[in-house]
Write a structure and sequence with these properties.
Length: 153
């Protein structure tokens, strides 16, 4: 399969990793877990750079989605990947099952999906970047519209 731009990914509930995937050996999982323990519990996006890699996180509704990428991968691709796995994870696992999942208990079921999404995002980086730009433009238009509505009110 060759060298990948996306190296490691995981889904965590709080600080408990319920699913993860990587084709590579290394301490990526350990560093990702250390960063995870320091993240605020709010719905947000975070990125940390270290040793030529970025550790990217998307926190939403008590779950944190993580991807470790080589530094040359754009932030849009990493965040696009995280949004894809968040959507897939929430569709596959209802709140009760996800909230009760033991550490790494969803690896067998969701690990292959993490791999599939990683491959797709690496192979379609240009498409993901374009989609991110369109989403940013829509967000800007929404902000202007809200400001205009506030002024009218």
């Amino acid at each position: 399969m060759g060298q990948r731009s996306l190296i490691y990914s995981s889904v965590a509930r709080g600080t408990v990793i319920v699913a993860e995937y990587s084709e590579f050996t290394g301490n990526f999982a350990d560093i990702a877990l250390q960063c995870l323990q320091k993240l605020p519990a709010t719905n947000n996006k975070f990125s940390y750079n270290t040793d030529g890699h970025t550790f990217n996180y998307l926190s939403h509704n008590g779950f944190t989605y993580c991807v470790v990428a080589v530094e040359s991968i754009s932030r849009q691709v990493a965040m696009g990947f995280l949004e894809r796995i968040m959507e897939d994870f929430t569709k596959r696992f209802d709140a009760t099952r996800a909230a009760a999942a033991a550490p790494n208990s969803l690896n067998k079921e969701f690990g292959p999906k993490l791999k599939e999404h990683m491959e797709y995002c690496v192979e379609h980086q240009e498409e993901i970047n374009k989609l991110a730009k369109v989403k940013a433009q829509v967000s800007q238009v929404q902000q202007v519209m809200r400001a205009n509505i506030d002024q009218v009110l």
